[in-house]
Each structure stands twice: as structure tokens, then as C-alpha cells.
Design a protein that fits this description.
about 475 residues, binds fe (iii) ion, alpha/beta, about 35% helix, 13 helices, Urease, subunit C, domain 1, TIM Barrel, binds guanine, 17 strands
Length: about 475
């Protein structure tokens, strides 16, 4: 981005879980470094004129179009992108063996990784995912390629080499804990080095920005890691408290049973991962569907974040699982949404938001209307799932002071949603005369898709979009 940007028109973003702000006539000014310099919420008479920076490109959004913050995908397996939708109904360990591992093994081939990751990152950007937390495969080279691709295409991302030194077929298992740790360390250093290389991380002596692509430790789950490997990863986190970590947590019955057998000393997965030094505010725990009160209390105390993946939970892994999201929120546990591409079939955060509403509805109904804790189980509203997909996800990744809404000082990661450009042949419920902004927004969230995403911006730079 070379020149400042100005947007005038409708802006929609979350202030809190239940507080969606819809501004019809706002002005946003974005500095050349991609930060939000000013945000005037109305141009009603009497509001002081905003000073438009010299050389700024000014965009007036037509009626029916609006800006929203980019989506944050807190759980995504990049190498599973080419197998989304396969193996529905299989239990988790069988699905890994039969469907997933053979696909991930292909990423030993660097040229396959480059082509596939290029398509994969392009796809998620097109669907408005401006930030993603990616599991790579176990391959260090392919993982570096994934980080390169995010850096080149301008997606904000966490990228982790998957650790798995046991309980996987030989063709994909790492040789040893020591090799896994060494390669992980090399990947972390490589990814950190990216921010110094082009890509506009620093501009003309301006204040240094946080790197767009960051490393994340990625032990697949306890089943696929020896105690020695988990211990080594925990030590890496202890040495460097800026390192994030992600794993699968209490996902399914089959997984929980196998974990207990491998680690008979631990009744609780929270205790297990904590004992290896892996839990803290930068830990992103995917799924969390079968949770005891004790585990929930530990996650709250340790300030871990939950990546809720309702599409995957209801189709792959073991039955029909619904995480207790309402209870997490009540306890102050950070929650975001994840596509879980490829356990989840969708690249679209919009699909995940819709499924989060369906899942919470199922939980509310199955929990038994009339119970004392009825309020506790109220289904998630449209406002709430939108928050989870944006500001909530930012919190899970400890980026809430950088992205997630349009507060002044944050970076401009955004989607320009169009409902006015019918040449894009949208399938969204049509906007009609007299629709309120809230109705238009609701139609988009429930029925829109990437054809409504005219422009996708990360840090003020246009990185994707269906529009001209
Ligand atoms: N548990 C361990 N690996 C995986 C994976 O790739 N996907 C899901 N959904 N669960 C897992
Ligand atoms: Fe997953």
C-alpha cells in the first residue's frame, strides 16, 4: 500500500460479544502503513470535517455495500485443503489413518506443496479469511513454503510445522523427538526471518509493525507425540513466552480414550498438556467438545483460547458433537471459530458461522428446555457468531489489539461486502427496497458467499476479491 485510503459509507463491526455496531455514514482513514488513523462514526451536520491526507484514494461505498472486519480462522489444516469433505462419518483415528495421512504425506514434495498451498491460501483469502492459524504437515520444507505463500499473498497467519513422532504410519511419522524439535526450531527461526524480507513489514522509517506471519508450535495431539517431544516443545515455550501453540483438545470419545491409555497418569487433558508446559494465554485448543467442569475451569484459569469448529464436529471425528460454547463464554474463556479445513468441508467462515448457530441450537434443544440452566444454553445469535468470527478469533490468537474491529490504531484487515454489484451474480437473498442495514447484513451472513466479497484487505493492501 503506497497511499492512504479513505472509505465513506456503511461500516459494521463488533464492539463486544453482543454489541454489533452498524454505522450508515461512517468515514475510515487508513494510513499508508495500513493502520486505521481515524474513524468518524457519522457525518451528521455539526461533526467536524475530517482532514483527508494528501494523495489519499477515496472510496465511496454505494448503498447496499458495507465494510466488515476480515474473518479470523483459528483452526485450519492447510495440507488438508485438497481433501475437504472426504471421510464424513468416520471416527477420528480411523479418519486420520484412512483419509488424512495419505494426503498429508504428499507434502514431502515441495513442488506439490507450492502449487497446493498457493491455491489454498488464495481460496481462504477470497472467502474473506484475512487471518488464519495453520497446521502444516510434518514436513519442514513444505511448512516454510506455506509461510512464504502467506507472506507473498499478504495473509496474516500463524504457521506451524506439525509434530508427530508416534502413532502414525511410518511414511509420515517423524524419525525421533530430537529431529522433530530441531526442525520445529528451524521453522520458527525461518518464519521469524520472513518479516525482515520485503512484504512491506516496515515502511519508510515508520514504527515497526508486528510480523504478518508468525510461528506457532503445533503438536498434532498428545496421541501422536512422545512425552519427550511434548516436553521439548514445552521447554521452547518456556524459553520464549511470545511463542504460540495449537493442538487438538478433547475432540472425540475415541481420541479421549486413546489419550488416557497412553497417559494413564492423567484424568484430564488440561492437566496433561499443562504438565508439559504447553498451556497459557497463547494456546489455541481446537474442538473442546467433551469437557468436564474441571477442564473448563483449567482453561479459564490458564487463559487458553478455544477454536470452535462446528462443521467438523458434526460431520467427522465421532458422531454428533457440540462444544459447550455458551458455557465457555459465561466463564470468560476466549472463543473463536475455525474452519478445521479438511475435517471441516468448508473454506467459508460464513458456513462456519451458520453451523455455529445450528450447533448451539442443537445443544439448546438437546440440553432440555425448562432446565435450570436454560439461560446458560441459549443458542448463539447472529451478532454473537459474527463476534466469534472476528474479534473473538482475534482474542484467541492474542491479536485483539491489532485486528478484529475498526478501532483507531488497529490494522485495516477488512472485507468490502457488495450487495449492489449484481454483475457478480450473487446467490444471496436479494436486497429489497426498504431493507434495513441490519436486514441486509443478516441476508449476507446467512446466504451470501465470496461473490459478495468485492475487495479483501489485509493491513490496507487489497489481497483478494470478486470485484474489479
Ligand atoms: N486430531 C489429530 N489430528 C487431527 C486432524 O487433522 N483433524 C482433526 N479434526 N482432529 C485431529
Ligand atoms: Fe483439526
Amino acid at each position: 500500500m503506497d497511499s492512504p485510503l479513505v472509505f465513506r459509507g456503511t461500516v459494521i463491526h463488533s464492539l463486544h460479544l453482543t454489541q454489533l455496531e452498524i454505522l450508515e455514514d461512517a468515514t475510515l482513514i487508513i494510513n499508508a502503513d495500513g493502520r486505521i488513523a481515524a474513524f468518524q462514526k457519522s457525518s451528521a451536520r455539526g461533526t467536524p470535517e475530517l482532514r483527508i491526507p494528501a494523495g489519499a484514494k477515496v472510496h465511496q461505498l454505494p448503498p447496499g455495500d458495507f465494510l466488515i472486519p476480515g474473518f479470523v480462522d483459528t483452526h485450519n489444516h492447510a495440507p488438508q485443503w485438497p481433501m475437504r469433505g472426504l471421510g464424513q462419518g468416520l471416527h477420528i483415528l480411523d479418519w486420520l489413518d484412512q483419509v488424512t495421512f495419505p494426503v498429508e504425506a504428499r507434502f514431502s514434495d515441495a513442488s506439490y506443496a507450492r502449487t497446493t498451498y498457493g491455491q489454498c491460501v488464495g481460496d481462504f483469502l477470497r472467502h474473506g479469511i484475512t487471518t488464519a492459524s495453520y497446521y502444516g504437515s510434518r514436513h519442514a520444507e513444505a511448512t516454510r513454503i506455506l509461510a512464504d505463500v502467506c507472506h507473498e499473498k499478504g495473509q496474516r497467519a500463524f504457521v506451524g510445522k506439525c509434530n508427530m513422532d508416534r502413532n502414525a504410519p511410518e511414511y509420515i511419522r517423524e524419525e525421533s523427538a530430537a529431529a522433530s524439535l530441531r526442525e520445529t526450531d528451524e521453522c520458527v527461526r525461518y518464519i521469524r526471518g520472513l518479516s525482515g524480507r520485503g512484504g512491506g513489514e516496515t515502511r519508510g522509517g515508520e514504527q515497526r509493525q508486528e510480523a504478518l506471519v508468525q510461528p506457532i508450535l503445533t503438536p498434532r495431539f498428545a496421541i501422536s507425540c512422545t512425552p519427550e517431544l511434548l516436553k521439548g516443545l514445552g521447554e521452547m515455550m518456556e524459553r520464549d513466552d511470545t511463542l504460540a501453540m495449537q493442538t487438538h483438545f478433547n475432540e472425540a470419545e475415541q481420541e479421549i480414550r486413546a489419550t488416557r491409555e497412553l497417559f494413564p497418569g492423567y484424568e484430564s487433558e488440561a492437566d496433561l498438556y499443562e504438565a508439559f508446559g504447553l498451556l497459557g494465554r497463547r494456546s489455541v485448543l481446537a474442538h473442546c467438545t467433551i469437557m468436564t467442569d474441571y477442564d473448563k475451569a483449567r482453561l479459564a484459569a490458564l487463559r487458553c483460547g478455544v477454536a470452535h469448529c462446528p462443521v467438523a464436529n458434526m460431520t467427522v471425528g465421532g458422531g454428533f458433537m457440540v462444544a459447550p460454547v455458551r458455557d465457555f463464554l459465561r466463564r470468560g474463556i476466549k472463543v473463536g471459530l475455525g474452519t478445521d479445513s479438511g475435517g471441516g468441508w468448508a473454506s467459508q467462515m460464513l458456513a462456519v458461522m451458520r453451523q455455529a448457530m445450528i450447533a448451539s441450537n442443537a445443544r439448546a434443544v438437546m440440553g432440555g428446555a425448562g432446565d435450570d440452566d436454560d439461560d446458560n444454553e441459549a443458542p448463539l445469535s447472529l451478532e454473537e457468531v459474527f463476534y466469534l468470527a472476528t474479534l473473538g478469533g482475534a482474542g484467541v490468537l492474542c491479536l485483539e489489539d491489532q485486528i478484529g474491529n475498526f478501532e483507531v490504531g488497529k490494522q485495516f484487515d477488512a472485507v468490502w461486502v457488495t450487495t449492489s454489484n449484481t454483475s457478480l451474480r450473487p446467490v444471496m437473498t436479494p436486497r429489497e427496497e426498504g431493507d434495513s442495514l441490519k436486514t441486509t447484513f443478516e441476508k449476507f451472513v446467512m446466504t451470501g458467499d465470496d461473490r459478495n466479497m468485492a475487495h479483501v484487505y489485509v493491513r490496507g493492501r487489497r489481497v483478494a476479491g470478486a470485484g474489479e
